[in-house]
């Protein structure tokens, strides 16, 4: 067997049946070298798992090789795919404020925390992160090649300002889509770059001035993306109209869904219908989340987290979710740790 680096064990006074071991080692160890059987540990092992680890970030993925502190399979972690009924219950608990703040879903670059999903409640205006993430879900399943332009960049384009998309080759895509925010009102923009077509969707209606502005804004933007000389035509499609003052983001999501899947743009949009749409959006965002097992569920970041690339993680004794120790304000490792998602808001 290869030689094993000598590790300095740390003995911690713990209550009975709650043994917490903390190891710090300066190198990444192969899985076959790092087991309980070949560590110079003098502390008796009690039938209890450890839930705090200090280790180099590069070795964290091999958590199954750490003594007494293995991450559960992704399917058992919070945020993993669950039945629709379970996701609905989770969403309703978030809306009711029964669950504390943490990340619940990741769709591409978009991370959804409790506060984002809370804005899906009836009567609330949707946040950009929810809309962007939902459009990203639709783009992944689109039969063509679609690219979501972040709402921040799309709004800048609409306002005639330079966008930070210099490294993105838009010629590779058959459809560009994104949402625009004007004075707290969301609208949808779809651009078919190789056909010179634009679809502008406003849940309050598309006036002629808006259509002219849309055509000019897209032309100016696409001229700098290799489409100079393209003749653009802005289309106006018949659709349902918003009757309240806060569901424009819901309409953006459902307009995009109908267009990308060949659905009906004239859908029922009474208060009860909008409430169902909000739940549908939330459930889909929860159900289609990427794996969260390598993220701190408090900040949503991976490792390395600290400048010295040495992270300390702590595991929730209730849900087995993992958190940066610093993000949890360094709770005592001698006590049972219950994460914000399990204990509810403080």
UniProtKB/TrEMBL annotation:
Keywords recorded for this protein, A-Z: Hydrolase, Metal-binding, Protease, Zinc, Zinc-finger
Annotated SUPFAM superfamilies: Cysteine proteinases (SSF54001), FYVE/PHD zinc finger (SSF57903)
Domain (Ubiquitin-like protease family profile) ranges: 110-259
Gene3D superfamilies according to UniProt: Adenoviral Proteinase, Chain A, Zinc/RING finger domain, C3HC4 (zinc finger)
Biological process annotations from GO: proteolysis
A GO MF term: cysteine-type peptidase activity
Alphabetized InterPro entries for the sequence: Papain-like_cys_pep_sf, Peptidase_C48_C, Zinc_finger_PHD-type_CS, Znf_FYVE_PHD, Znf_PHD, Znf_RING/FYVE/PHD
Record Pfam families: Peptidase_C48 (PF02902)
Family: Belongs to the peptidase C48 family.
Descriptive protein name: Ubiquitin-like protease family profile domain-containing protein
Organism this protein belongs to: Onychostoma macrolepis
């Amino acid at each position: 067997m290869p030689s094993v680096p000598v590790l300095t064990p740390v003995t911690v006074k713990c209550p009975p049946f709650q043994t917490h071991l903390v190891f710090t080692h300066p190198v990444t160890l192969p899985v076959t070298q790092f087991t309980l059987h070949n560590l110079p540990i003098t502390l008796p092992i009690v039938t209890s798992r450890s839930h705090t680890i200090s280790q180099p970030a590069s070795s964290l993925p091999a958590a199954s090789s750490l003594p007494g502190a293995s991450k559960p399979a992704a399917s058992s972690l919070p945020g993993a795919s669950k039945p629709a009924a379970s996701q609905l219950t989770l969403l309703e608990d978030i809306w009711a404020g029964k669950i504390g703040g943490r990340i619940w879903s990741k769709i591409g670059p978009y991370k959804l925390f409790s506060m984002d999903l809370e804005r899906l409640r009836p009567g609330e205006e949707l946040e950009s992160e929810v809309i962007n993430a939902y459009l990203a879900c639709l783009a992944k399943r689109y039969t063509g090649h679609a690219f979501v332009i972040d709402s921040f960049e799309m709004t800048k384009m609409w306002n005639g300002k330079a966008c930070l998309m210099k490294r993105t080759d838009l010629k590779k895509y058959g459809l560009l889509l994104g949402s625009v925010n004007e004075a707290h009102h969301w609208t949808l923009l779809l651009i078919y770059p190789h056909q010179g077509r634009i679809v502008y969707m406003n849940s309050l209606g598309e006036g002629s001035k808006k259509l002219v502005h849309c055509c000019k804004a897209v032309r100016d933007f696409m001229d700098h993306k290799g489409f100079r000389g393209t003749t653009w035509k802005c289309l106006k499609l018949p659709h349902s109209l918003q009757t309240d003052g806060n569901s424009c983001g819901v309409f953006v999501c459902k307009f995009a869904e109908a267009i990308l899947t060949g659905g009906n743009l004239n859908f029922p949009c009474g208060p009860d219908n909008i409430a169902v749409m909000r739940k549908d959006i939330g459930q889909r965002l929860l159900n289609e989340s990427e794996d969260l097992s390598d993220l701190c569920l408090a900040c949503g970041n991976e490792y390395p987290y600290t400048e010295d690339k040495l992270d300390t993680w702590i595991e929730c004794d209730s849900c087995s979710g993992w958190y940066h120790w610093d993000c949890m304000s360094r709770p005592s490792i001698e006590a049972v740790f219950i994460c914000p998602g399990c204990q509810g808001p403080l």
